[in-house]
Design brief:
By secondary structure, this protein is mainly beta. It is built from nine helices and 36 strands. The strands form twelve sheets. Strands 22-21-20-19-35-32 form a six-stranded antiparallel β-sheet. Strands 3-6-11-8-9 form a five-stranded antiparallel β-sheet, with no helix packed on it. A hairpin with a 6-residue loop joins strand 8 (132-139) and strand 9. It is globular and about 80 Å long. Mean pLDDT is 91; it is low at 1-44.
Amino acid sequence: MNPKLSRFFLHTTITLLLLLSLSAITHVLNIPVLEPLKVVAATSTLTIPSSAVAPWSVFKRVDALNSSFRSGLNTAWGDYWERSENPFDIGYTEQTQELTNTAYGNYAIYNNLDLGSGVEALMLRIALPSGTNSVEVRLGSASGSVVGSCTINSTGSLSDYRTVPCPLNSSLAKGKQNLVIRFPGSNSSMRFNWFAFWAKDTVQKIDEIQKIQSKNNVNQGSPVIPISGRPIRTQNGLPSSSQILAKSYGLWSPGKTWECPKWMHDTYFTKAEDGKVYPTWHPPVDFNPETNVYCTYGHEHGDDPLSSEAFNIAGMPAFGYVNEQLAANNPSNPSVHRNEDHFGHKVLVANNWQMFDESNTSLIKSCDVSLKLHMGTHSPDALVNTAHEMFVSGKCDGLETFNLKHFALFGAAGEFKEPETSLCDLSVNPGITPSPTNQPYGDAHRAIPTAGCYQRGTVDQKTADVNTRNTEYWLTGFIGKSFYFKITNPSRFYDPSTTTKINRTVNSCYDPSHPLSTTLLCEETLAAGSKVEWDDPRSPFRGTTQIETHFSGLAFENSANSVIYTDAYGRNASISPAPAQGITFKQIVPVQGFNYDANGQASLFPPRDYSALGQNGVRAPN
């Protein structure tokens, strides 16, 4: 980063209001006290149950070896590179054993599977060196009712695996069932690794479907704060009519029948420094007292801020606060306003990171940081806008707290770049006007997949690089250091042939000539049953999976005051506000500066998927 810009970032910090007691936390979250329901009389449930029916499509993967009984089938070690149980690379998958001798009527029974209101197809993960083979799916026993059958074609070798569909009669394949997978053919060379399916109206445990994250990193992921047992939401939890609402409040409405009512979403709010009501973090799933089943908000906001050991510094994040202040300071000039959608606000929590003093590497501090970034990966917004709202607050042992709120800058307005991989990495001008038009240059970048990038090079080059070409990389400078965000399953890519300049990633799965169509994610999409649209929870391209996200450190110069003021971009620091120059954003910074780094593995957030691998109904747009 440019040293001059770096100094501006050093002086850009906002901090703590007051230490929040438990009662204050309850107030900020607007969680109602346990009391008899007044507005909603359809249920007597007072707290969120640990398990209930989830009416959206939920993904279930079953290891072929986890049968209750098998007849005639043998086991063998699968190919070393067959790691399809973990297509998002959230955790390491060991070499697995598989079923063999898949012929002559041999079979396996899988007891007590919850098929909900009906399963359209099983996904079968197999390898078949030559010829074809047959599969039957029955209920109860090897002679039970046939609910599906399919013919498996050769994959080429025992080292080449495919995820293939086996259609089922969904009117029969439903409810709690003992499912039998039988192999009536004569080709015994097939290997069977796992099967999976999507099912609605299955019973889920709410605290297990918040997110999935690796447990093998130096830095541990933020804990899931249990939702079960909390008071259910009621309309008593909405803002009063006397409260002033920010423009960002109340924008979301449900788009699917299984999603939570709008009023429930609107009970998640916080008051910011300006006294206005803003939307804030909420879990991806909740309990609907009107139906007595779980509901999903269809989008997620990352880690729970309450899981941060730095929570008391900033409390719940006010989504859209910087956007609101920019507009409030320029009410007569809408060309300088910035409006960011609700879906893109994401929270990341870093607890107990070990960081070292840049000038004395033997001096180690444990640091807690909570950050919020607007990072939507579904719309055309990031194709052209470099300014994205970002909050960073935290503390390091023995050092002063910090709390900053302003726009982070990701490269140049009006353009972006392609993913950082071979034959790509080009700058792109999509021909869309930035909003606002006066966004400054950010000395970093947004790297977004493009239609052209996917198709460059030889077939082997396209295949080898397809996953990196389908990745978004966001890099910015903040607090004097670099922050790097990497999303591996965006729902969009740039396509200049469309009116909106974007296309939907999942559409590529249905184009056999597209390099993405042979990836694990597309294989599962094609084997899901009916056609998967871009905003279907069954689409794996949800913008929910982060891998290699990290920040390099925290750096502050000495400050004459712990409270300073900046413009909306964290620049032009002053000890007092100067509205005429747009210097109105209150920041809290350490008076005694420090410069701490985190390198290598110690700078990484654990890989995580906030859709819980397809279990919580999160979908695009997200």
